[in-house]
Write a structure and sequence with these properties.
Blueprint (H helix, E strand, L loop, with lengths): L4 H70 L5 H21 L4 H29 L3 H9 L2 H138 L9 H50 L4 E5 H11 L1 H6 L3 E6 L3 E5 H17 L8 E9 L3 E8 L30 H11 L3 E7 L3 E9 L2 H7 L1
Parallel strand pairs: 2-4
Antiparallel strand pairs: 1-3, 4-5, 5-7, 6-7
Helix pairs in contact: 1-2, 1-3, 1-5, 2-3, 3-4, 3-5, 5-6, 7-9, 9-10
Length: 506
């Protein structure tokens, strides 16, 4: 199943969320284990400290009792060394044991009881030793045989045994919990790793599938582009041939139209020449009728007057109309021939200094603009380009001629030319004037063949801007206008910076 871009995004987000969840689970488990380890370690240390303190305290009691018995049996003072050592250490060690149970009320109470028991035991040991030292062995042995000291020691041993067992159990429980935490971390890490591996695998598979589809799509696009380029080349060639046919047809038609037009113009000239002789004859023959002329004479005179009117009024007017129409038709035919010849002209790309070309175009109309009290200003940095010089000269020459021709009569003419680089490696030139402007509804109309805008107070056939647009398109560009009636116009011409690419595409 093809993977769409949206599906890829959704899958990527899902995989990221799963991977994030797995990482959070692993991190959470590690944080929990660290906390649990800290608690277990604290409990373990505390239990071991309690156990160590208890064993040490129990050892002190046993050492004291052993020293007492050895002295009572041998009367040798050397046996009192363990007793004296234990007696000296007992208070601090007992304090250590009680401190270990400070935060456990029940154990603290038992430790207090132990302190009392051990204190009584040491008191009993001291009493017997002092009696023995004074030679009263019988009394000392009587106290020992009374089993008061053994009972105290048995009570202490019970406490030691239970407390040590409790500490050992705490140690075992802490170790067990630590093991369970480690096992849990192992499983969480294992499962998290599986999820992450699955996420990475799924992501790789999804990206691989999508990449494979992209590669296939690129191949298909390449094939389509190649086919499209072929079809565009074929269509361009067809259009080129059709354009050539149209140009040939226009040339043939205008050439064929010119032949009868020349005949009409020639016969009109002959007719006009003959009209002079006719007028001379009619002027001599026709005379005003006499007052007593007969009806027949008056009728003849009326006919003569009609002939005079035809010779001096009707025929000259008709010949004038014929000559005016033939001149107009001749101008239109010449315009069509000019466009046809321009369309068949081979474009010659060459390196052009656009700055110099614009300056030459401005110099060509300098006197006319100076007479109108105006000026031409070239701004910007016109780039160097490869194009057809004659085409560009005709384009800018035509635009500057129009600026002069259609200037406003009530203000000095100002023409501003700005050139620069446009998008797609094109050149953009703006020709701005403060002339009489163009009405909004005529912005496209002025580029149509034989169509003109505004008052027709200037001679022309209406082919100038149509010719400019045709030439601009021939060099890979176009022309447009922004204008406001009574304010001025800005013509923007765009064309290819490298004409060779345009010619190659054609």
């Amino acid at each position: 199943m093809p993977i769409s871009k949206n599906a890829l995004v959704r899958s990527t987000v899902l995989f990221l969320l799963l991977g994030l969840a797995a990482l959070l689970a692993i991190v959470g488990a590690m944080v929990w284990l660290v906390n649990e380890t800290a608690v277990n370690s604290s409990n373990l240390i505390k239990a071991r400290s309690e156990r160590s303190a208890l064993i040490t305290l129990r050892g002190l009691g046993q050492d004291a009792e052993t020293g007492q018995r050895g002295y009572l049996l041998t009367s040798n003072p050397a046996y009192l060394a363990p007793y004296n050592d234990a007696r000296a250490k007992f208070p601090d060690q007992m304090e250590t044991v009680q401190s270990a149970y400070a935060d456990e009320p029940e154990q603290a109470a038992l430790a207090a009881r132990l302190r009392q028991t051990m204190t009584e035991k040491f008191a009993e040991l001291e009493q017997t030793i002092e009696l023995a030292k004074s030679g009263r062995y019988a009394e000392a042995l009587a106290i020992v045989n009374a089993d008061r000291g053994r009972a105290l020691m048995d009570e202490a041993r019970v406490f030691f045994a239970r407390s040590i067992e409790r500490a050992d159990q705490t140690v075992l429980d802490s170790i067990a919990r630590q093991q369970r935490g480690i096992e849990m971390l192992r499983w969480v890490t294992f499962l998290g790793a599986l999820v992450i591996i699955a996420v990475v695998g799924g992501s790789i598979w999804t990206v691989w599938q999508y990449t494979r589809q992209l590669v296939e799509a690129q191949r298909e696009v390449a094939v389509l582009n190649a086919d499209l380029e072929r079809r565009v080349s074929e269509r361009t060639a067809d259009l080129g041939r059709a354009n050539e046919e149209i140009q040939r047809f226009a040339y043939i038609v205008t050439h064929d139209l010119r032949a009868p037009l020349v005949n009409i113009m020639g016969f009109t000239s002959e007719l006009e020449a003959s009209l002079g002789a006719l007028q001379e004859y009619v002027g001599e023959v026709v005379a005003p009728p006499a007052a007593d002329a007969s009806a027949d004479a008056a009728d003849e005179t009326g006919k003569a007057e009609a002939a005079r009117v035809a010779a001096f009024e009707d025929l000259p007017e008709a010949i004038g109309f014929i000559r005016s129409s033939t001149r107009k038709m001749d101008g239109l035919i010449n315009a069509i021939l000019k466009l046809s010849r321009e369309g068949r002209r081979t474009l010659k790309p060459e390196t052009i200094d656009l700055q110099g070309l614009l300056e030459n175009a401005a110099n060509a109309v300098h006197h006319q603009i100076a007479d109108a009290g105006g000026e031409v200003v070239i701004v910007g940095r016109p780039p160097a380009l490869l194009s057809d010089r004659l085409t560009l000269e005709q384009i800018f020459g035509n635009l500057l001629d129009n600026a002069v021709k259609y200037r406003s009569k009530d203000r000095p003419l100002r023409v501003r030319i700005e050139a620069g680089i446009g998008p797609g490696n094109t050149v953009v030139v703006k020709v701005e004037d403060n002339g009489r402007g163009i009405a909004a509804q005529d912005h496209e109309r002025i580029f149509e063949l034989f169509r003109r805008s505004g008052s027709q107070d200037q001679a022309g056939e209406g082919i100038g801007l149509a010719h400019v647009r045709s030439m601009a398109r021939n060099i890979g560009g176009d022309i447009g206008v922004q204008s406001e009636l009574g304010t001025g116009s800005t013509f923007e011409i765009t064309f290819a910076r490298d004409l060779r690419k345009v010619i190659g595409a054609i």
